[in-house]
Amino acid sequence: MNSTADGSGGCAGVMFDFSGTLFRVEPATSWLGAVLDAAGIALPGAEFARCAERLEAAGALPGGPPPRTVPEELRELWAVRDRSAAEHRAAYTGAARQVPLPHPDLYDALYERHMAPGAWQPYPDASEVLRELGERGVPVAVVSNIGWDLRPVFRAHGLDAAVHTYVLSYEHGVQKPDARLFRIACDKLGLAPERVLMVGDDERADGGAARLGCAFHAVRHLPVAERPNGLRPVLGRVG
């Protein structure tokens, strides 16, 4: 899906997803390595690689690949993990605990690490696109399924000035694709849904905005180096 709700362009406001759209989280090897270094724990190369691979396969890195399988005991929680901070932490630390690590404190440390601004890198064209939207007077909302406050990430990377408002699932107890979250964002932008473009990498979750009447523009959730220009087409969809 990569079209407006009525097949035309010219939207007056934009909603962006966070992970896989504006930013990409660090690889599992960097994520695990940063936590082990901070704890003063060294693992042999083969063991380190195996742990990182298993954590990634378990879906334990928020913003990383989804789990290959969700354990039965986590399925109910996993489905609603973005409704609250507590559910988000419990789901992801629960996924990480499927992988044996050398100290029990590492599971919470891994969760804390993924919230650090240094764990995230903006896509190459994110700053340019957000800046130009701001110069055009186009209001921007960040609408994310998430369990923690991502505002410090935007501030640390110098992208916060271009964001008019943040609508985060855990702050409202509602997660995408529920149209209520997109409605909140449209209201904060002061625009009817039909005048707002939603940009995201998940056609199910982010594409839910289309059911409200918003336009939708899909981007691919790729490593930063592999998607240098994925956001620039958005500029042609607004104005």
From TrEMBL:
Keyword list, A-Z: Hydrolase
Pfam families named among the record's database cross-references: Hydrolase
Keyword Hydrolase among UniProt keywords: yes
Gene Ontology MF: a single term: hydrolase activity
Protein's UniProt keywords contain Manganese: no
Protein name per UniProt: HAD-IA family hydrolase
Natural source organism: Streptomyces boncukensis
